[in-house]
From TrEMBL:
The organism's place on the tree of life at top rank: Bacteria
Gene3D superfamilies attached to this UniProt entry: Aldolase class I
Name of the featured protein: Radical SAM core domain-containing protein
Pfam families cross-referenced by the UniProt entry: Radical_SAM
One Gene Ontology MF term: iron-sulfur cluster binding
Family to which this protein belongs: Belongs to the radical SAM superfamily. Anaerobic sulfatase-maturating enzyme family.
Domain annotation Radical SAM core: ranges: 80-314
Source organism: Acetatifactor muris
Keywords: Iron, Iron-sulfur, Metal-binding, S-adenosyl-L-methionine
Record InterPro entries: Aldolase_TIM, rSAM, rSAM_sf, Sulphatase_maturase_rSAM
Record CDD domains: Radical_SAM
Length: 447
């Protein structure tokens, strides 16, 4: 036997946690057993604990000497890139009702999908759906619900098309929540829009400073009223509302108050969860924040997770967000972003770049219902294999070298300290859920 090449481990005050990014298993031991467990994993220990060895082998922390884990990862990469699922990000608007201080997009006033483009997209899905095993749509923008009539109509049509050919259809929406009243929510939800991704930046005062309406008014009260109404008046359990809190150092002190309020308003409802993220240096709008030292590093995240734990906050699932292979939609052969004007793109970040925006555009939806793709441009984004430079990375099974194709392969930027960044992000979620990780000790097991 040998140690898996995809093991990662860390300590907190009480436990030594080991996780395997290939099998997605994780286990914990008392922190004082770190050295002996490390020796067992490395096959350097003379200690014979059959139960521990069985668990480590069963969960993929140790593997047979003949096992080539990379071959398995290459196969998975090929299968995901060439998935038969049709992945569409539909951007019915490229304008927004908010003026967020860190937004990386350059919105266009009045940029809203017209009825002809909407008809073409629906026709293209209907005409080509027989080639695919499922349809997954993400509604994005700008703010997509500025065009809520069109989003609701298209979402309904997509479900009807998939029902006729008996394949699955599911959707999610990234929205600021301002127009997500109960009626709009119910019209989306009944047609398989199951996941709602909404940013609320930590309490009324801070949120209204960071995410004001374009007219200068606050947006917090309207968004929170919508969420409370959905919680109180929608009985179904089959949806998720994930509230993203974008943190910078200036917002750190406000987070605890927000989580306290979240516990009061939503803490007893598992349909609502929190995702804590850092404000990223994605545009010229964050240059000043970066220069002032306001942007947080991923190493700050575990401390935020401890705050969440104090208030029993349901942080979004560690399995869903961190221990499941996620490759960028741009890397998938059947993954397209459809702009409000019917043009087909690959990457939001490239779309915003003066240097790369033309490379990002790979085609258009035609009047006769075709996804007309320029194959040479598509080849820039889609490859069946991951970069050779990724082979020795312990996080490889999580992203297959394709978490951000724009950064890695288009811009040629190397991943910097990616394993530690992954562990810091993981520890954020782990710190609120560590009791769910199976606990073992030499000679005895506890659940």
């Amino acid at each position: 036997m040998k140690e898996s090449r995809f093991n990662l481990a860390y300590c907190n005050e009480e436990y030594y946690v080991v996780l395997n990014t290939k099998t997605s298993h994780l286990i914990r031991f008392p922190v004082n057993q770190k050295e002996i467990i490390s020796e067992i994993l490395q096959q350097k220990s003379t200690l014979c604990d059959l139960e521990i060895h069985r668990v480590l082998a069963e969960k993929g922390f140790i593997v047979e000497d003949s096992t080539n884990e990379l071959d398995e990862i290459y196969r998975e990469c090929y299968e995901l890139v060439n998935s038969k699922v049709l992945y569409l990000t539909v951007m019915p608007t490229y304008t927004c009702n908010l003026a967020c201080i860190y937004c990386f997009q350059h919105h266009i006033p009045g940029a809203i999908i017209n009825d002809n483009t909407m008809k073409n997209i629906i026709y293209a899905v209907e005409k080509n759906i027989g080639k695919y095993s499922a349809l997954y749509v993400e509604w994005f923008g700008g703010e997509p619900l500025i065009a809520r009539r069109q989003v609701i109509y298209m979402n309904q049509k997509f479900k009807e098309i998939c029902n006729r050919v008996r394949i699955p259809y599911a959707a999610r929406i990234t929205t600021n929540g301002y127009y997500l009243d109960r009626k709009t929510f119910e019209q989306l939800f009944k047609n398989n829009c199951f996941i709602y991704y909404i940013s609320v930046d930590g309490g009324k005062d801070l949120h209204n400073r960071q995410r004001p309406c374009r007219n200068g008014e606050g947006s917090y009260d309207v968004i929170m009223a919508n969420l409370k109404q959905i919680k109180q008046e929608v009985s179904s359990r089959n949806f998720r509302i994930e509230i993203r809190v974008n943190c910078s150092k200036r917002s750190y002190d406000y987070l605890e108050q927000f989580l306290k309020e979240f516990e009061v308003n939503f803490g007893n409802d598992s349909r609502f969860s929190v995702i804590i993220e850092t404000v990223n240096d994605w545009s010229e709008r964050t240059v000043q924040m970066n220069n002032e030292g306001q942007l947080m590093d991923h190493s700050d995240l575990s401390e935020l997770g401890k705050i969440a734990k104090r208030y029993n906050i349901n942080l979004a699932s560690i399995d869903k967000h961190l221990l499941k292979t996620q490759i960028c939609q741009a890397a998938k052969r059947n993954g397209y972003s459809i702009f409000y004007d019917g043009t087909i793109h690959k990457c939001q970040m490239a779309l915003e770049s003066e240097k790369y925006c033309q490379m990002d555009k790979i085609g258009k939806v035609t009047d006769d219902g075709e996804f007309q793709i320029e194959k040479e441009n598509e080849k820039i984004w889609v490859s069946d294999i991951f970069p050779k430079s990724c082979e020795n990375c312990k996080v490889l099974p999580m992203c297959l070298g394709k978490k951000c194709v724009f950064q890695k392969e288009i811009q040629g930027q190397p991943c910097i300290d990616i394993e530690n960044k992954f562990l810091n992000a993981f520890m954020l979620y782990d710190s609120s859920k560590i009791d769910m990780i199976p606990l073992y000790t030499i000679g005895e097991k506890y659940e």
